[in-house]
Specification:
By secondary structure, the protein is mainly α. Helix content is 88%, strand content 0%. The protein contains one helix and no strands. It holds the Pfam family LysC.
Length: 40
């Protein structure tokens, strides 16, 4: 792998991590709303 290829690959991994973190935050928010309404 070249340095340029490594940079592109690293950028792709960081994008995937950002997406995962956003998904987890969304799930956390929905879970808190569900708990606040008293739904199991």
């Amino acid at each position: 792998m070249t340095w340029g290829g490594l940079a592109v690959w690293t950028d792709s991994l960081l994008d995937a991590l950002d997406t995962c973190n956003a998904d987890k935050a969304g799930i956390r928010e929905l879970e808190l709303r569900r708990i606040a309404r008293g739904i199991k």
